[in-house]
Specification:
The protein is built from 21 helices and 2 strands. It is mainly α. The chain is globular. One of its GO terms (cellular component) is plasma membrane.
Length: 455
C-alpha cells in the first residue's frame, strides 16, 4: 500500500501539471483578450511609466510607500532561486523550446498580474495604524461578497507560508554549507536579518527592497552578460533552437536525453507560471500600500515585475545555459548547477561565489516579503495583535527549516499553494469587468494617460 505522503505527492504532482497550467495560462489568455491586448498595445508607454520612473520620487496620491518600493517588495518575492536553478532544469527536461513557452506564459501572465494589482488597489483599506492594506482577501470579500472564500484564502496562505519559509531557509543553508557555514548559524543570522526588516512594517521592507533587489539582480546579470558576450557567436543558433524546438521535438545530444514538444510546453509553461507568480494573489498585498493617483498606474508595475523576473532574469539564465553549450554536456539530474559551472569556468572560484551569493540574496529577500504576506493574512483574520504572533512563528520557522526540521510539512506545500491560487484566479476572472472599466477610464481620461503623453 502507498504511504500517505506518497499519495500527497501524487495529488500535488497532478494538480501542478495540466490543471494548474490551464487555470493560470487559460486565465491569463482570457484576461488578455478581455483587456484588449493592452500589454502589447501600450507596451512602450508602460515601459516609460515603470523603468523610466524607477528613480522618480515625484508621486501623487495616497499610500504608504512609493510605487517602486511596492514593486520592489513584490519583486523580492518572485525573484528567487528558481530564476537561477529552475531555468536550466526546465531546459534539461523540456529542451530549448521550453524557453519559448516560458515567454508566452509570461506575456499572458502580464494581464493576470495587472488585474490582481488593480483590484488590490481598488478594494484596499487602512488598518489600525493607518497603513494601507489589500490583496485577494479584501477584493474577494468586498468585490464579490464571498466572505467564506476570502477567509479560506487568508487561512491557507497564512499556513502555507510556514513550510514555504522552511524550504527557502533550507535552500539558503544549503548554499552556505558550500562556504563552510553551519546551517544553525545560517538560520540564526537569516532570522535576525529578516526580523530587523519585517519589524519595521511595509515602509522599512520597501526601503530595503528598493536597494537590495536592484543590487542582487545586477550582480547576477552582469556576470551572466559577460559570459554570454564571450559566447556571442553561439547566440543566433541558441535563438534558433528556442523557436525550432518549441514545435519540433529536440533530439538527444550529449548529456541531454531529448524532449518532445509536450515536454517543452509543460516545463516552459511551468517555469513562466511559477517564477513570476502571476495569478497567485501575493503581489497585490505589497502593491496595495503604494502611493498612487489611479489603480491602473500601479498595475503597470505588476507588468514590470513579470518583465524583470521572467523576460529579463530567467531569459538571461536561459541564454547563459544555451550559449555555453553546457546543457548538452550535463545530465538532467545535475542541470541546476549549470549556472555555477558557467560562472566558475570563466571567473574561477570567484564565479561560484557570485552565484552562491546571488542565491543567498535572492532567497533572503523572498523570506522577508513572504513573512510580511503571512502577517497580513493573520491581521485580516484575527487583527493586528495576532499578526505579531505569526511574525515570530515565521521567524522561528527560518531556523527550523535551515537545519532541515519538520520536512514532512514540506510535502503539503504545493497543495496548499493550489488552495490559494484557485480561489484567487476564479475571483479575478469574476471581477475582470471592474478592471476593464478602470483601464478604459485611465486611458480615456485627460487626467492620466492623455495628460502623460502630452507632457
Amino acid at each position: 500500500m502507498q504511504s500517505f505522503l506518497d499519495v500527497v505527492g501524487e495529488v500535488s504532482g497532478w494538480i501542478w501539471g495540466i490543471p494548474m497550467l490551464l487555470i493560470l495560462g487559460g486565465g491569463g489568455l482570457f484576461l488578455t483578450i478581455a483587456l484588449g491586448f493592452f500589454q502589447f498595445k501600450y507596451f512602450g508607454y508602460i515601459i516609460k511609466q515603470t523603468f523610466g520612473k524607477i528613480l522618480s520620487k515625484n508621486v501623487e496620491g495616497e499610500g504608504t510607500v512609493t510605487p517602486f518600493q511596492a514593486a520592489s517588495s513584490a519583486l523580492a518575492s518572485t525573484v528567487g532561486a528558481s530564476n537561477i536553478v529552475g531555468v536550466p532544469v526546465a531546459i534539461a527536461l523540456g529542451g530549448p523550446g521550453a524557453v519559448f513557452w516560458m515567454w508566452i506564459i509570461a506575456l499572458l501572465g502580464c494581464a493576470s498580474k495587472f488585474t490582481e494589482v488593480v483590484l488590490g488597489l481598488k478594494y484596499r483599506e487602512k488598518n489600525e495604524v493607518g497603513e494601507y492594506v489589500g490583496g485577494p482577501m479584501y477584493y474577494i470579500e468586498k468585490g464579490l461578497n464571498w466572505k467564506p472564500v476570502s477567509v479560506l484564502f487568508a487561512f491557507f496562505l497564512m499556513i502555507e507560508l510556514v513550510p514555504s519559509i522552511m524550504v527557502q531557509a533550507n535552500s539558503v543553508a544549503g548554499s552556505a554549507v558550500t562556504m563552510g557555514i553551519s546551517p544553525v548559524i545560517t538560520g540564526i543570522v537569516v532570522m535576525i536579518l529578516v526580523g530587523l526588516v519585517v519589524v519595521g512594517g511595509i515602509g522599512r521592507i520597501g526601503r530595503v527592497c528598493e536597494k537590495l533587489v536592484p543590487f542582487m539582480a545586477l550582480l547576477y546579470l552582469l556576470g551572466a552578460f559577460i559570459i554570454i558576450l564571450m559566447n556571442i557567436t553561439n547566440l543566433p543558433s541558441a535563438i534558433a533552437l528556442i523557436f525550432t524546438h518549441a514545435f519540433i521535438p529536440a533530439a538527444p545530444v550529449g548529456g541531454f536525453a531529448g524532449a518532445a514538444m509536450a515536454s517543452a510546453l509543460r516545463w516552459g509553461s511551468a517555469r513562466g507560471t511559477y517564477s513570476n507568480e502571476a495569478g497567485m494573489g501575493t503581489a497585490p498585498m505589497a502593491h496595495s500600500a503604494a502611493i498612487i493617483d489611479h489603480p491602473v498606474r500601479q498595475g503597470f508595475w505588476g507588468i514590470f515585475e513579470v518583465i524583470v523576473d521572467t523576460l529579463i532574469i530567467c531569459s538571461t539564465t536561459a541564454f547563459l545555459v544555451l550559449t555555453t553549450g553546457l546543457w548538452t554536456q550535463v545530465e538532467s539530474s545535475q542541470a541546476a548547477g549549470i549556472p555555477a559551472m558557467a560562472f566558475s569556468s570563466v571567473f574561477g572560484p570567484a564565479g561560484g561565489t557570485v552565484v552562491t551569493l546571488s542565491l543567498l540574496l535572492f532567497v533572503i529577500s523572498t523570506i522577508i516579503v513572504i513573512t510580511f504576506y503571512g502577517e497580513k493574512q493573520a491581521e485580516y483574520l484575527f487583527g493586528l495583535g495576532f499578526s505579531h504572533v505569526m511574525r515570530y512563528v515565521y521567524l522561528i520557522s527560518i531556523v527550523i527549516g535551515a537545519v532541515g526540521g519538520m520536512k514532512f510539512l514540506w510535502q503539503f506545500l504545493d497543495i496548499l499553494l493550489a488552495c490559494i491560487i484557485i480561489p484567487n484566479m476564479i475571483s479575478i476572472l469574476a471581477l475582470h469587468k471592474d478592471v476593464v472599466e478602470l483601464k478604459n477610464e485611465f486611458f480615456a481620461s485627460p487626467n492620466f494617460f492623455k495628460k502623460d503623453i502630452n507632457i
